[in-house]
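Any chance you'd type out a single protein's sequence alongside its tokenized fold?
>
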Amino acid sequence: MGELKQLETFVAVVALGSLSAAARQQGVVPAMVGRRLDALEGRLGVRLLARTTRRVTLTQEGETFYEDCQRILADLSEAEAAVASGSGKARGHLRLSAPAGFGRRHVAPHVAAFQRLHPEVKVTLDLSDRLVDLSRDRIDCAIRISDLADSALVAMRLAENRRVVVAAPAYLASRGVPRALEDLARHNCLSLGESQSRGWSFVRDGQAVNLKVSGSLECNDGAVLHDWALQGLGLAWRSLWEVKDDLSEGRLATVLDDFSSPDYPVYAVVPQRRLLPARVRHFVEHLRAAYAAPGYWD
């Protein structure tokens, strides 16, 4: 057990970048983390980390050993998951992440229903529009709305989704209606900041196009961008589920429909694993069934 703790502590220090952060994650004092690292290096007879008061860096031997430790701990986690899933019963701590607006409407209500069905599962739901690092933040499953391109993750499609460019009628009356993608350069585009660093996506002549946009207002919370659009402050690129009521009631209108963006499906994203823990597998199935219910998105 002591040797396993040493490995877990070593991996945590490297992943989080400091002894104090690893100590907080593991619920111990930093001095304990230091003693575990000293014991590990003493047992192996090599220096794994170069430590200063400000940072820790891997030595050449440490880099190789870190990769081996990650694999060993992942294999152990999978072995434990296999035993747990063999009973088919979900249990343990399920750590979830989801975009703030979508999570409030379409994840949190289902988390409560899921927990009632699986009372032995403790659920922690993190709602944020930032792109979480599943490994660093110890997230079991993240809900994302994106054209996923991270090969280090496994994505399971949960539902379809479409993005549209919208604006309030008052804004369009004062600034004009954009007819071509190039017109966006003359408009105030409400941006999600770094989370939307690739720009807004469209299709032109059958080809996907990503356009960088700019404007006087930027926020990392999609709900704020939605409110700004309703106030007539600019154009916003939002998911249809978020603005469909505003469209039907005339508070917002779509523009550039001829260049409608590619589908941005809703995914459940998990780290690469050969076998998912039962709690994750059951939750993904729970969400997929909820989203597939007739009339859910209406």
